[in-house]
DNA sequence: TGCCAGGCCCTCTTTAGGGCCTT
């Protein structure tokens, strides 16, 4: 069975100075992998200098220090490169609303835009892994016994783990339906379906 | 200096409140 929605996808993750670009927070690292037919075929990773110091909390949380950022290229330079990398591919992130806010904010600063659609691995996991203890990325990786060395909270590592989780979810969904492929539109529909209607939706495929 | 958000989703709901996720 094919998994067409993975034919060309960018799975991305930002590390940032905080939670809200509307409150002045900036991206400090972008990591992404390109998935084609279920395989990682390309990677992107870069630190970026946000032009402000990051808090001790962020240094501890990510391991990214002010010293490291002082030697990094500025955000606009890195985001220009990343915009070229992702093109108009569809996009996936864990808690996509968070990464989309920062992607939109950073690209807006350099007047670059994209036409891809976002899908959220968190929303999908809440539908198909309703018995998981919680739906944090690290917890889901452990729940599905996906090999990991535990180095979470760096952008490329988290995007690689999200990509593995994504492929695992597509495989699990493909086992629940009779259709020949798991389409991107089905994934987006699933992520918006009330939990108690998930089985009905899958059985209709 | 210290602090900050927003979308989703559940329920003891919908004229609301609070937990889960992301950094």
Automatic annotation (TrEMBL):
Q: Which GO terms describe its biological process?
A: DNA replication proofreading
Write out the GO MF terms.
3'-5' exonuclease activity; DNA binding; DNA-directed DNA polymerase activity
Coiled-coil segments, which residues?
none
GO CC terms of this entry: cytosol
User: Does the keyword Mitochondrion belong to this entry?
Assistant: no
Positions of the Exonuclease domain? 8-175
Enzyme Commission number(s) of this protein: 2.7.7.7
InterPro entries referenced in this protein's UniProt entry, alphabetically: DnaQ (IPR006054), Ribonucl_H (IPR013520), RNaseH-like_sf (IPR012337), RNaseH_sf (IPR036397)
Q: Which of UniProt's keywords are assigned here?
A: Exonuclease, Hydrolase, Nuclease, Nucleotidyltransferase, Transferase
Name the reaction it catalyses: DNA(n) + a 2'-deoxyribonucleoside 5'-triphosphate = DNA(n+1) + diphosphate
- Subunit annotation: DNA polymerase III contains a core (composed of alpha, epsilon and theta chains) that associates with a tau subunit. This core dimerizes to form the POLIII' complex. PolIII' associates with the gamma complex (composed of gamma, delta, delta', psi and chi chains) and with the beta chain to form the complete DNA polymerase III complex.
Function recorded in the entry: DNA polymerase III is a complex, multichain enzyme responsible for most of the replicative synthesis in bacteria. The epsilon subunit contain the editing function and is a proofreading 3'-5' exonuclease.
Q: Which NCBIfam families match?
A: dnaq (TIGR00573)
Protein name, please? DNA-directed DNA polymerase
Species whose genome carries this gene: Paraglaciecola arctica BSs20135
Its organism's taxonomic lineage begins at:
Bacteria, Pseudomonadati, Pseudomonadota, Gammaproteobacteria, Alteromonadales
Question: Gene for this protein?
Answer: dnaQ
């Amino acid at each position: 069975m094919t998994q067409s929605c993975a034919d060309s996808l960018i799975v991305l993750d930002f590390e940032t100075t905080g939670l809200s670009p509307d409150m002045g927070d900036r991206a400090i690292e972008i990591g992404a992998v390109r998935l084609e037919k279920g395989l990682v075929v390309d990677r992107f990773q870069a630190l970026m200098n946000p032009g402000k110091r990051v808090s001790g909390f962020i240094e501890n949380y990510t391991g990214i220090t002010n010293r490291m950022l002082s030697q990094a290229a500025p955000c606009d330079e890195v985001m220009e490169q990343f915009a070229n990398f992702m093109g108009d591919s569809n996009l996936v992130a864990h808690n996509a609303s968070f990464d989309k806010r920062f992607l939109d904010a950073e690209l807006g600063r350099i007047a670059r835009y994209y036409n891809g659609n976002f899908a959220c691995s968190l929303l999908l996991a809440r539908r198909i892994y309703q018995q998981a203890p919680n739906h944090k990325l690290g917890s889901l990786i452990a729940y599905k016994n996906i090999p990991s060395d535990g180095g979470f909270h760096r952008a490329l590592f988290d995007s690689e783990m999200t990509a593995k989780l994504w492929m695992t979810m597509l495989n699990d969904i493909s086992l629940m339906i009779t259709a020949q492929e798991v389409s991107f539109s089905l994934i987006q529909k699933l992520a918006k379906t009330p939990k108690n209607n998930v089985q009905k939706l899958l059985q209709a495929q």
